[in-house]
Design goal:
heterodimer; A: 4 helices; about 50% helix; B: alpha+beta
Amino acid sequence: LTGYAEQIPEPPIHGDIPGRIQDLFFRVLNTEISSPDEDVIESGLLDSLGLIELLSELEHEFGIIADLAELEIDDFRTVASITELVIRAGQTTG
Amino acid sequence: MAKALGDLRFRAPSDHETARLVPALLGWLYEAGNPFYEWFFSELVDGPRTVGGWMLRPSSEVSLSRIELLVDGDVPVGGFVALGGDELLACRRADALALMTSVAREAWGRVEQKATIARELFPPVESDDYYLSKMGVVPERRGRGHGAAIAAEYVEAGVRHGFRRFRLDVWAENSAAIRLYESLGFETIAESTSERAGLTYRAMAYELAG
């Protein structure tokens, strides 16, 4: 039975993606993101180390592999844009 | 008193010469980033090759478009890279992303560790600081006061851009550079050591009076 279970494919990314990203921001940046549209690039909240941590944590949290060749800083601008990035990566990773 | 520079002058690189400038500038620019660069890139990527590639990326801290060249006739003999605090933050983010894309995912943890140490070594730069990222002179032209001319031009460029506070980080053992910056009025505001990296850097600042 265990062997069988292992062959069941991972479910697609589901649940409250923006909420999980907000939690992740809190862990990485120690900062509460007030709205999905808050611009963390413009506000200077996300520095280079924060970006590195965020990208690794996103891949870990959602089990995705982002297409690095396609990544832009703008993808990390808001919780909303990161949600899109996660969904996009989830489709190609799955 | 203004220093007579002879045929020397400062100028920005022109579009048509960008590719050929990389090998001409990479030597002093990489050296200016050392010993931090050598430590930071080791076990991750080929440092000089990576920085050479970044020089061609407009969003990089060391993009050719941000270099102010000191040329003799048409021969580059040195120069500097300086940028405002906000622009520096944006460039460092872009460089971090570029680095992540060029190392294997297994090395991401290592990049993260090194970036954490980098944050300990280099205190934050404020939005209204004009930051001297790199400056240097080609080896065969050293000892002629070009460094002093470059550092003075950096401050003048900042003034032209409306900055009143100047910031830089310098390797604590580079006493010649520290003396040069002190002669311009810079003072040490912090000294940070990372035991893990085996590096000590000094943060220096200079504020225009009045």
